[in-house]
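ok trying this again, last paste got cut off
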Amino acid sequence: MSNLQAFFAHNKKKQDNIKQPISKNFMDEAGQVIEWEFAPISPERDTELKAQCTKRTLITQGKRKGQYNTDFDHFTYQRLLTVESIVFPNLHDRDLQDSYGVYGADELLSKMLTIGEMADAAAAAQTANGYEVNVEDLVEEVKN
């Protein structure tokens, strides 16, 4: 196989989902912590999430009057990426949402997990999506 053929679609390795325990508060009948499952999202969905987290504001004064500032909300993006990456438990399940009295996967995740568990879930989502994760940086981010 030539080096170029290694890049053909049929030779690309499929990325496995990541399974890991996120919260000690959810156990099965045997008392074992249930693992959550994370999958990568598509590049198209990632673009949509980034667009959702980007705000453009018109500058009305000064030398740059008439131009736009572009602000990216990294915290919202990270939260949405985490929600989108979780495949188990199904955060879109109506009964699960009803049990917490919320509507929407994002609200549900916020009710289910502590801040520290959210950081663990965010790290797992980043790993599932191919990002190199530095857990210490995430811990510092949560502290601030």
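PB: full thing came through this time. The longest helix spans residues 115-128.
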